[in-house]
């Protein structure tokens, strides 16, 4: 299931493409695919050199762009300045080119009522969605927390990451909302959105990745797309991480590219945890084919 949402966009430079997702939903895998697709090298791209798709919440980029010390600001004050940050990024992109940015934030407004991610700077977003039952398991491993806590996080309308200023993480706060509200925030965002299910990325890789390539208006042949998919296979990513490590791996997890399996939740979630997630997210799960007659499709 691939979905295109052509929401109205404001006028502007329209040169940013957001690669958006709730964490652990296929975002990094797609970024590696994109790096291989855009590369002019014969060899596989290094998973530790994904410079072409920086994360939108990078603290150093924020500080350098606006000439501020974000450590001196509250999270809400930072959000008030983020629109200017992304306008600066957009203004620096050469004419006729696009810039790709990983993002985990929900698409929300700051306390001034301004979109944190100005619609006029973006030509669209690719939104990656994954069965929240599997997300709960994968996120628990990545974050080094219990599955029960992970379930609570997905159901928490106020959930955020990198919000603890005391430890000063290398990313600024990202408000995720609950899993369902995260999805809704992006599919209803005022810009064109291409929705890719993680499960389709696995089960129908070529057609799913090609859909995103066409959405981004990249002039690539079927052969180039297939080659980039092959270079980004899960086995190859696991091998690279084992040999070189992966700088985006959480210190709380043994590996970033752990399993990537569909339906692994059946091996980990209790009936009560499954019920909690379905009760909270049934509407969106049904909308995207994850739930049928009260049972998870995947």
How is this structure best described in words?
The protein is of the alpha/beta class and 298 residues long. The chain has a single domain (2-267), classed as P-loop containing nucleotide triphosphate hydrolases (Rossmann fold), CATH 3.40.50.300. It has helices spanning 27-38, 59-66, 75-92, 132-143, 147-155, 179-187, 198-203, 205-215, 222-231, 234-244, 271-287, and strands at residues 2-6, 16-21, 99-103, 122-129, 160-161, 174-175, 192-197, 291-292, 295-296. Strands 1-7-4-2-3 form a five-stranded mixed β-sheet, sandwiched between helices. β8 and β9 form a beta hairpin. α4 (132-143) crosses α5 (147-155), α6 packs parallel to α11 and α8 (205-215) crosses α9 (222-231).
In a few lines, what is going on in this structure?
With 298 residues, the protein is an alpha/beta fold. It has 11 helices and 9 strands. The longest helix is centred in the first third of the chain and has 18 residues.
Low-confidence stretches: none
Q: How many beta-strand runs?
A: 9
Task: Give the termini separation.
Answer: 13 Å
What is the count of structural domains?
1
| CATH domain fold name | Rossmann fold
Mean pLDDT over all positions: 88
Strand order of the largest sheet: 1-7-4-2-3
CATH C-level class: Alpha Beta
- What is the chain-wise order of helices and strands? EEHHHEEHHEEHEHHHHHEE
Major sheet size, sense and barrel closure: 5 strands, mixed
| Helix share, percent | 40-55%
Q: Give the C-alpha Rg.
A: 19 Å
Strand content: 5-15%
């Amino acid at each position: 299931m691939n979905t295109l949402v052509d929401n109205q966009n404001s006028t502007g430079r329209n040169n940013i493409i957001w690669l958006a997702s709730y964490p652990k939903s296929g975002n990094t895998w797609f970024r590696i695919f994109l790096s291989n697709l855009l590369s002019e090298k014969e060899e596989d791209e290094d998973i530790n050199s994904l410079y072409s798709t920086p994360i939108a919440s990078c603290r150093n980029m924020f500080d350098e762009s606006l000439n501020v010390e974000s450590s001196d600001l509250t999270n809400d004050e930072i959000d008030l300045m983020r629109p200017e940050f992304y306008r600066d990024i957009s203004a620096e992109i050469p004419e006729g080119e696009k810039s790709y940015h990983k993002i985990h934030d929900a698409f929300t407004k700051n306390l001034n009522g301004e979109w944190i991610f100005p619609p006029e700077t973006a030509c669209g977003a690719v939104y990656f969605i994954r069965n929240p039952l599997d997300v709960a398991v994968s996120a628990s491993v990545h974050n080094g927390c219990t599955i029960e806590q992970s379930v609570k996080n997905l159901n928490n309308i106020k959930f955020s990451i990198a919000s603890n200023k005391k430890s000063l993480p290398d990313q600024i706060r990202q408000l995720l909302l609950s899993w369902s509200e995260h999805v809704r925030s992006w599919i209803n965002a005022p810009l064109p959105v291409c929705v890719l299910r993680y499960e389709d990325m696995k089960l129908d890789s070529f057609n799913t990745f090609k859909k995103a390539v066409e959405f981004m208006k990249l002039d690539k042949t079927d052969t180039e797309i297939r080659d980039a998919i092959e270079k980004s296979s899960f086995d190859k990513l696991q091998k690279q991480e084992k040999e070189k490590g992966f700088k985006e791996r959480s210190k709380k997890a043994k590996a970033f590219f752990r399993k990537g399996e569909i339906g692994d939740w059946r091996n980990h979630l209790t009936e009560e945890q499954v019920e909690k997630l379905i009760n909270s997210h049934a509407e969106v799960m049904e909308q995207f084919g994850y739930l049928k007659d009260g049972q998870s499709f995947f």
